[in-house]
Model the fold of this input.
Amino acid sequence: MRSTLLSRRDLDFLLYEWLGAEELTKRDRYLDHSRETFDGVLDLSAQIATKYFATHNKLADANEPTFDGERVHIIGEVKEALDAFARAELVGMTMDAAVGGAQLPAVVGNAAFGYFHAANVSTAAYPLLTTANANLICKFGTPEQIERFVDPMLTGRFHGTMALSEPQAGSSLADIVTRAEPQNDGTYRLFGHKMWISAGEHDLGENIVHLVLAKIPGGPAGTKGISLFLVPKYLLDADGTIGERNDVSLAGLNHKMGFRGTVNTVLNFGEGAHTPGGSAGAIGYLIGEAHRGLFYMFHMMNEARIGVGLGATALGYTGYLKSLDYARSRPQGRPISEKGSATAQLPIIEHADVRRMLLAQKAYVEGALALNLYCARLVDVIASPESDTERDNAQRLLDMLTPIAKSWPSQWCLEANNLAIQIYGGAGYTREYDVEQHYRDNRLNPIHEGTHGIQSLDLLGRKVPQDGGANLAALGAEIGRTVTAARSLADAALAEQLDTTWQRLVAVTSTLWGAGDPELTLANSAVYLEAFGHTVLAWIWLDQLVAADGKEGDFYDGKRQAARYFFSFELPKVAPQLDLLERLDRTTLDMRDAWF
Done:
């Protein structure tokens, strides 16, 4: 029976026919792997996601975590799923073998983890955060920190979080006030409050490892004074066993419209609810050097941003597959030419507008998945470069594409969920079907790990002008190679359409930065993000067409038709956006509070 989580046929095409994942096994880092190990992990992930994660998705949504004033209660199926995930040694599937990981390529790891997002995005959030937490500690922590805290994460005993936001600061991290006071023994005592901390308190494992941004008194102002600390829920004794409770306490739970199975918390540090060593203050251990915390945390945040994009993609993808099955099995209406006749009703997939909605979903979700796996393969090249030039180019491309990989799926795979509901009709809005939950879950992703506005400022304000536009040039070179290759296709006109759009986007970018007014340049950055994202996705689709050239069968014909849809229905939306940007429009910039 075909899975309604993800399409394995699509994954095989993207991994092996398009991205050449098998070629990675020739690089030193991945010599121990083969197509067989890659397929084995994909098969195992699909099985565990189907058996342990998907089976309690609706149950966790209907029975969200509760707090009785002493402990958080979560349905037992969540722990069963996480234990199965850990037993399969999937927590560290892409981590270094030196720390106990399987050292799989990220492109395979992302494809595998997509199954868990699609099956149950709320439960998948726990290992997602834990893996990103462990990766940061491995990169910037000490050998002792890795041994004492990462090793137990890989076996599922410990879980991880990231604690950035504060009630008064939100996304403005320069304004955080959590402080870390140095102690004579080299540790720090932390005092402050953190908000919107996913997985911040639970009993799903023996311990929770918080990575906390805080400021050391006397340090530089703003973001330059932020340091990063490892703050466990429970301190560890000398032999690594669980010791006394740290001064980290739960102030309350946040109740979101989606991701209801992921406990979301307000945490207090140093409130005196617990007094380790007889004193108030949460004991923390500095990660790396003082005042470089935001730089370190961006390692986890960027990984999480790509993870959010993957989660948004998977939710859109499973909604698409379910609405496709529904459209094939739901009889309603007759051909326009036979209205009023006694002929049998048609499956609704035979109606042109339903096919339009299905084709839009296909274009969105398959394009988003391709973009995410492309970015993951860049991570693999950076981790195992064959030359400095190759590594530097891959890093530039990844820097350029990360805001798109997070924001585009969060917007357009949410639209796929919206269309899935529409295909179900009135049934789509009922809790008896999955698609309404997928929409609610996915609606959080435009906010997770930075809103569209934040991603747009990162893209236009930082990534585009960085190093004199080198990132933009690197992406332009890749798009140019695809355009050249696509000019020999039957759909060669699409290559010219993309080339024209890209060249205009570059010209408009120059106009924006030539205005001499950064505030004006960034006033419409969200429009720029959308135009840029659609252009990138057109490139991703055109590159898939190149990979499918000369291949026959329904699968490849479907790819070609989805690409044609994107170029006919979606890419033309970019032109009026570029018109607006080129005018350096001041409408939103000149609006005043009193006029609302």
